[in-house]
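User: Now give one protein:

AI:
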Amino acid sequence: MAKKRSNHFIWILALMGVLAVIMYYQFGQKPAQPPEPGYNMEKTGAGVILDFSEQSLKLHAAVDSGLANTKVTPREVKEAKREVPRTGVEGIIRWHTRNILLELPETVSPETLEQAIKPLAANAGGKVIGTEPDNYNGTPAVRIDVGIQDSLNNEPLTLVTDRIYIIKEKKAVPSKPKPKVERKSGSMAIIIDDFGYTREPIAGFANMGRPITFAVLPYRAYSNEAATRALSAGHLVMLHLPLEPLSAAEETEPTVITVAMSDAEIKDKVAKAIAATPGVKGVNNHQGSKATADRRVMKTVLGVIKANNLFFIDSRTNGQTIAAETSRQLGLRTGENELFLDNSSDIELIKDQLRKAVKMAQKNGSVTVIGHARPNTVTAVREMIPEIEAGGIRLVYVNELLD
């Protein structure tokens, strides 16, 4: 009888063990969690913002680890915040980017570097998107793109977080002595034309920390953004008014003042362009080598400018221009461009033009120059500011140099 009871007891213990296992798997384990999205979401009145900045920083760290593992130190790193409109819905996508310049020693190839970064980028939720030939400021380079590649609302999504530019390591050469700049006092007004075409240069000039006169084209995709960003940073804004060039093939703007227009047409178009550009205090001409040589056209254009209490700068795109002369005859506050900075996109050549402008300001007391809203011009101006000021030249807004 005792043996029978013992068997029953063993069976009861076994049954309890089975029940304990079932209850553990049924109730003790946490349910599987869906993977976290690679972005933070913020709802606004203008739609939903998907912010990939945190994921971007993880990929930056992965790239830095890959570079450290191959004992490569970046020569230059440029960071920026990026955002683009979402496709098909209201809102924007935001992320963080870097451009990294490397000079690889002979012991490290681009392929070796790519293989070092690949697994680290994958662990950080990204990937090496591609490798292709490119150039960096005119120097041949190989570019490796690292970033996020996914789908959003069933649409493919690619965000490049790190652009790695690889150039050949340069042999050490004796550094050139810095040019000696004679210290004399003077003022320089830098006008930057053609704001409105692209977004990229806007922040660079707005954050320059020195007076920059923004000349903004009307009716372009980024015109309002350029003007409002400049105004919020305290810069001076002008209308960059399109006038007819000598060659019809150069005429690319949606609205251009031409010599064939009647006075009424000219007045209407100038007034509307002024009204379309926020916060303008003056006007300069975009192109206009044909129109600025026509006295009737310029008297009509300048009459509207005067009626709006604005000043006028002659960009001097044509040696035959009578625009500044006519402006002074009508009693407008007037100035003239004395030097174009960036007919070449080469940074060193732009710097040479700025050095020439320094000498002009030292000799004459002031100078007005024009550059364009381009990334290399941003770089050249920013890097030349210490040299300009070391030469005794004060950067000012163009309305301080008008006669």
Q: What stands out?
A: Residues 2-28 form the longest helix (27 residues).
